[in-house]
Amino acid sequence: MRTSIKIYVIMTMGLVLILSATSSFCAEELKFKYITSIYSDNQEGKLKQPEGVACSNDNFIVVADTGNGRLVRYTFKDSLAEPLAREIRTPQIKYPRRVEMNSKNEIFVLDGKLRRIVRLTADGKFNGFIGPQKASSPSAYAPISFQIDKDDNLYILDIFSEQVMVLGARGEHRKRITLPKEYGFIADLTVDDRGRVLLLDSVTARVYSSTANSTRFSAITEGLKAYMRFPADLTTDTQGRIYLVDRNGSKIIILARDGSVLGRLSAKGWKEGLLSYPSQICINDRGEIFIADTNNNRVQVFVEIESQ
Amino acid sequence: MLLRVAAVLFICMPVAFLIATPLHAAHQVKLKPGASGSECLRCHEAFQKTLKSPSVHPLLKSGKCTGCHDPHTSTHKNLLISDVTTLCNSCHKEMVPDKARSSHKIVVEGNCITCHDAHGSDNPFILIKTGNALCVECHQDIATQTNQAAFKHEPLQKGKGCLSCHNPHASARADYLLKNEVAVLCKECHKTDRSFFVGRHMNYKVTDSSCDSCHNPHGSNKSGILYNAIHAPVAEKNCNQCHPDPSAPNALEPKKKGVSLCLDCHKETITETFNKNRVHAPLTDNVGCLNCHHPHGTKEKKLLNDTQFKVCGTCHADTVALQQWSIKNPKNENLCEPVKTGNCTSCHSPHAANNVLLFQEENISVGLCGKCHEWETHSTHPIGEKAIDQRDKNLTVECLSCHVGCGTGNNPWMMPFATTYDLCTQCHVERKR
Q1: Do residues B123 and B156 both lie within one domain?
Q2: Averaged over A76-84, what is the pLDDT?
Q3: Nearest CA-CA distance, residue B401 and chain A, Å
Q4: How many CA atoms lie within 13 A of B203 on its CB side?
Q5: pLDDT at A17 over 70
Q6: Which range of residues forms the domain containing residue B163?
Q7: Confidence bin at A14 (pLDDT 50/70/90)
């Protein structure tokens, strides 16, 4: 009898040890380092409530300087952001709220006032509109966000027709993906390294995904309100991790590819490294993270420190 | 092995017995033969009178005082055998159905004695009052509205009153404790197939619609108990202004989607809205204005779907939670009035604005906070364009540099920090201890 109890106790303790060791090996340790902040253009003109930031893998950054109604370009090398000589102002852009670059460094801008996507050349010249060209008045097309994948396909989140419109690199229609049946408010979308389209519901803090060949979305997370207040933007890195920008909570929440919560980056504040009502986030292939720190009138740069 | 089985049975059997036995049954005491409740009544004489009431609790009637009370000692008030909020539920579990669509808060909280006398009363179901008088004790706002209404809803005034439409405990079928879905419930009295009814509804087939979309079931000052705040086309019976002809198959659908539906009449407001830098995102989707406003009528001003606080909280639950948390904070005696009252539109423009966070003014300190806090613009602390925030060279010192507009939970003075020391030393680092 006594021997069997001893064996039982030893086996139980062994199992507990195995489980705790496994969990510590599996847990992904995330650490980030603050690099720098971008405050102004090449004339020392201050950024004002920037809401958009795009980054390329060849060291270019474009900032949607929303409050000043312009775009400002920078090069980013060796942790230093150097503004390029000329700001971009065009009559087609009044209030830039989101910016993206394709593989040729062409610039795409979502204008908040005119509610349309503007295409610019790499050096900032107007090169047409994407999608219907209706402006200023209510219409049956309401692009609230967009994303460009590695093959330069364009994904437009149209909340009026409740769909994601997928256009080819030359603007040709590819497919439509219908938004999920029940949602609070879909605020943003992104495309990950495997071609999955991810949607973010700000009201429920839920992430939806649609695989490359699908025309439907399904939830990959439960509502994540316990972790964040009002997420409004998302992106992914080269490892498929999902970064949610908690606008009202002024922080970044990081999810694994499967939607499980991995950790957080930064917190509410005014000092460098802290955020105040952040908007767009961009991550390049080197893992450099650019965040439009809107209410702090700057763009902040972080980088992930390799896990020990 | 036998020993193990015996041990498991030894632990499980009493637990199973306790679960299966009702609370009062578990609390049997050994009274002397024939004593029962009569022993209690020797001292508690007042209950002799209660026993003669038309409505008496069965346990009291059968002399089982020990069903609820311990004759010797108890950790609960009135020598009750358990907390008053859980005691009734040990027998009356059926009051709230398993999948209730709605339930009365006081029932869920176990405050049964708000409506019922635990021992006996002159009213049926040992209620402390009868009819609407009982409901009015808490729902005074509805009573006032009902009494002042020029046009009253008959069932509310006669017969069962509130209970004509509502269940007192819970409803398995509808919200607001209603006995059934609105359309079904109303049809119990209103014959919707009669030509009079059809004519009054402009030949639209509304028999399965929610009547409370236009009518206030508690009465109103408008004929046909239409809501006091009623959309003009409804009041004027111009349903076809927004809906297709009544003979159309989709007659009850709106003619257009989104803000376009409202554009014909509200052109000025909508054009002004869409010319701003930032339009409140829900306005641009295919529901448009109806995300927040009701197309027919409501109890609220400006045809809002609910109180402003609740409408905003539909999406911004996080901010509303923060506001609620701030209200409950004892340190927040000086909570900003709009935050206290949930008046979001004091600072934010609900349709559109040229400023971030839909602020009504670009200049936060003077333009926005200064609307109410005029004296604060003369604060001795430097504020404004020339005062650079020490924490961020691109920021100037504004009211929101030290205060958070929507509340700050447990922090005093709507500050983002727990103490003024923590706040001030953000910039005045040389004063840090």
Answers
A1: no
A2: 95
A3: 9
A4: 7
A5: no
A6: 152-243
A7: very low
| Pair B179, B71 in one domain | no
Q: Is residue B341 part of a domain?
A: yes
Q: Which B residues, 124 through 143, put their C-beta within 8 Å of a C-beta on chain A? A: none
The ipTM, to two decimals, is 0.87
Instruction: Please check whether residue B52 lies inside any domain of the structure.
Output: yes
Option in B284, B317, B319 nearest A160 (CB) = B284
Can you list the residues of chain B whose pLDDT is less than 50? 16-22, 25-26
Q: Chain A contacts of B275, Cβ < 8 Å?
A: 113, 136
| Position B269 in a domain | no
A230 touches chain B (CB under 8 A): yes
A160:B271 CB<8 A:
no
Question: Does the CB of A113 have a partner CB in chain B at under 8 Å?
Answer: yes
Taking alpha carbons only, the member of A289, A284, A285 closest to residue A301 is A289
Residue ranges of domains in chain A, CATH in brackets: 28-305 (2.120.10.30)
B324 in contact with A, Cβ within 8 Å: no
Give the total number of structural domains in chain B.
3
* Whole-number pLDDT of residue B42: 85
Pair (B118, B78) in one structural domain: yes
Residue B269 contacts A where some CB pair is shorter than 8 Å: no
Q: What is the pTM of this model?
A: 0.84
What is the pLDDT confidence band of residue A170, given thresholds at 50, 70 and 90?
Answer: confident
Any CB–CB contact under 8 A between A152 and chain B?
no
Residue-wise pLDDT tens digits, A184-235 = 999 999 999 999 999 999 999 999 999 988 999 999 999 999 999 999 999 9
Please indicate whether, in this complex, the C-beta atoms of A67 and B319 are within 8 angstroms of each other: no
> Is B261 within a domain?
no
